[in-house]
Amino acid sequence: MKSTLLTENCLQKLQMWDLLVLTAGSELQKRNFEILLADTDVNQYCRRTVVIADYPAGVRIGSGGATLNVLHTIGETMDKQKVLLVHSGGLSQRMPHLSALGKIFATLPDGSTILEKKLSTYKHLSTIISPGLLVCASDVIEDISAFKHCEATSEMIAFATESSLEVAVDHGVFVLDPEGNLKSVLQKPSLEFIEEADGVLPTGNVLTDCFYWMSWSICKQLTALWQERGPCTVETCCYGDFMRPLGYAPLLDYLEQGPSELSLWRKSFAEIFSKISPQVVNLGVHSFFHMGTPRELLEHCHRDSTFSQKFLASFSEAVHCSLSNCTGR
């Protein structure tokens, strides 16, 4: 009996993140998140937690700048450890009832928050991936049951879902060659561009981005950018600006677009990520559930939805979801 308990305890300790990081858009939001985190039981999922506010204060740096800020803040002390970064510092403008507290602490019909559901879903990832940084969004819950192993030599793993063409135009799109190698990453492309780039799968769907993991080798290169240039003071994206240089035939015309400061940062990111051959993991259809708008939240929280069937074992009778008065996105 004691042996069984010890084995279970050891396994539970292995299935944990060394550090959970939430980003905050301001010091005020940071303090609010810290209060909410203190009331959330995350001990079974991670050893430590920290909330890091965007810097410089009052400057919109986007998820790209926030990622650099996080890496600079936690420093190289996290090398050889597994860190989960949830970008949660957005304004939630399309979800005004969550603007004060953030979408990451939104309550689902089973009584759990999006954060708790994400931590539960990601729990087994910490036993599969190597030390590094897992980067994800606060308003998405993914079904990652299809992911069983990673390539030992992977410097980066990009997790993707199969989406319709209509959905793909609002996301990053992975274009693979017939051998399954990543050719390029398109950012919010038109339907015509997706077809011209051979981005449509045999199923008629398209591979769109979910979240990703990167090694500490990559993280150190990003940290060096901060040390060399100081904090990022323009709005950059940890998806579009980090991932578009990936692949053996990336489309880099965007590097010359926009203000000079933005172009400079994008070129620096491209210098790092263009040298990486990521592993692309197809999580399949119905594996990406976005909670970014009231309609999406209501659709997914409906008792008969695919999301409810996958993630909501219990359903509170106190929660009633209706789409009758929700017409816009």
TrEMBL record:
An example molecular function term from Gene Ontology annotations:
transferase activity, transferring phosphorus-containing groups
**Entry protein name:** GDP-fucose pyrophosphorylase domain-containing protein
- Keyword Cytoplasm carried by entry: no
Cited InterPro entries: GDP_fucose_pyrophosphorylase
Every copy of the GDP-fucose pyrophosphorylase domain together lies at 76-323
Which keywords belong to this entry?
Nucleotide-binding, Transferase
Q: What is the lineage of its organism?
A: Eukaryota, Metazoa, Ecdysozoa, Nematoda, Chromadorea
GO BP annotations, alphabetical order: GDP-L-fucose biosynthetic process
Pfam families on file: Fucose_pyrophosphorylase (PF07959)
State the organism of origin. Answer: Ancylostoma ceylanicum
PANTHER family documented for this protein: FUCOSE-1-PHOSPHATE GUANYLYLTRANSFERASE
